[in-house]
Design brief:
With about 100 residues, the chain is of the alpha+beta class. Helices cover about 50% and strands about 15% of the residues.
Amino acid sequence: MSHSMEPGRPVSLEFMGEHAFLLSKDEASAGLGAAFRVFEKHGVHPEDCRLAMRKLAGNELLTKDEAFHCLIWNEAEDSAFRAATLGWLARNVDIRLEV
């Protein structure tokens, strides 16, 4: 799903993980929509959050803004997962957001 939050900075998010193939098109769309709403609510671009998460994964020192972006990414990923798997009997699955 592509979404343009800022002119000249389109972003494409997708679900990854061992069980991502289980998502229907509608479920994936609902999940990605939920993630974009989180980014928009906080007024941040998903790419900034992705870059901050990459630094965190590399055990690099984060600025205060980057730490905030990591928190927003986690909120967006959680919202996306919950919206995409709403109604599933099991949630012990490997599904996560990737930019």
